[in-house]
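go over my protein:
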Amino acid sequence: MAAFGTALRELRHDRLLTIEAVAEAAGLHPNYLGSVERGERNVSLFNIWRIANALGLPAAALLDELPPRKVKHS
């Protein structure tokens, strides 16, 4: 979740938005959004959609920023 939070913070900074502004637009608490950005929380799909909406993006745009998953071969 750290990669998601880092990507979210970069997108928010690119738009010159504060955590408080995005949280209010998404209907979330600023402390929650901050903990998501720090990778301390697992975020639900519904909240990803709410955050993306607040940033004026489709939800997929937040997920496109994630690195590919590493698969362990047995």
User: Anything to note?
Assistant: Residues 8 and 14 are 10 Å apart (CA to CA).
